[in-house]
Amino acid sequence: MSTLKSDEIVRKAAKAGTVIPGFNIPYLPMVEPVVKAIKDCNSFGFVMVARLEWEKFESKSLESVAEEYMKFALSEHTRLHLDHIPVIDEDNRRVEYMEIIRRAIDAGYDSVMIDGSRLELGENIRSTKEVVDFAHGAGVPVEAELGAVLGHESGPLPPYEELFASGKGFTDPEDARRFVLESGTDWLSVAIGNIHGAISAAAKGKQKIAARLNISHLDKIYKAAGIPLVLHGGTGIRKEYVMESIRHGISKINVATAIRQPYEANISKGINAAQDAVYEAMLDIINKELELKGSAEILGQSQSCPK
Fold first, then answer.
1. What does the chain look like in DSSP terms, one character per residue?
2. pLDDT, tens digit (0-9, with 9 covering 90-100), for 169-193
């Protein structure tokens, strides 16, 4: 049994030159195949839920996800992470984020994320520090976000090539240095060309934009921040960019669209068919896209993985 905390695991991954994937749960039945695939591949990963996934999908609540997760949790292979809890959400509404963070820690989440990226820098730092002070008091590490990782907003995005070329919304390295120093966050989600999968009813089933990553900009952020960095919106980014990002500071990568869409495409055939589709997608992501077969060996575990 592994007793390592989430922050220790992410830092071990960084030292080993690998990455810890996080898999979002917009539908409760996805928990079982996600955990099964991670275990069967002798890999390690976070099972995650974001506020928008119980507000706009069918994960019900953070407590419901925790309860479902506890049925299948394997300490050698998984931890439970609270993803995006915004201060201002994708619909420009203020959120009672501290109440949600408290609920998550009470429910047994191993790490939490506060997202103040829609705030100006000083307010983002203040909000993040409030969460850090509370969570660290309970022994729980914190992820924060700096820069604009777009995609969750209800309106259309500007043309992607225009966004990438301009660097609009990219995390500023000097802001990152100040942010980490003043907030005390453990991990930092950054914007370097990555985007979230769309969540609007009209767009959520469409193929995601094939994003690129500005690796030289990432390197500057990592040198300035000095802590593990997180890549949100992992689905759709070309493999060579993802693998290079791991060599330049990315220690956690979030995957949502690539496992959500197979579930939605097969649910009309029944829950078992949808779960099978998630499991197969997970094997492909772990084995081929991220090359993480056997990654749990960083925690001293070893077993075979299905091909």
1. -----HHHHHHHHHHHT--EEEEE-SBGGGHHHHHHHHHHTT--EEEEE-HHHHHSSB---HHHHHHHHHHH--TTTEEEEEEEEESB-TTS-B--HHHHHHHHHHHT-SEEEEE-TTS-HHHHHHHHHHHHHHHHHTT--EEEEES---S-SSSPPPPHHHHHHHTTTPPPHHHHHHHHHHH--SEEEE-SS--PPP-STTTTTSPPP-----HHHHHHHHHHH-S-EEE---TTS-HHHHHHHHTTTEEEEEE-HHHHHHHHHHGGG-HHHHHHHHHHHHHHIIIIIS--TTGGGGGT-------
2. 899 999 999 999 999 999 999 999 8
Structural domain count of the chain: 1
Q: Is 307's pLDDT higher than 70?
A: no
> Which residue numbers are catalytic?
83
In a domain, 92, yes or no: yes
Q: Would you place residue 107 in the very low, low, confident or very high pLDDT band (cuts 50, 70, 90)?
A: very high
In a domain, 305, yes or no: no
Q: Is residue 282 part of a domain?
A: yes
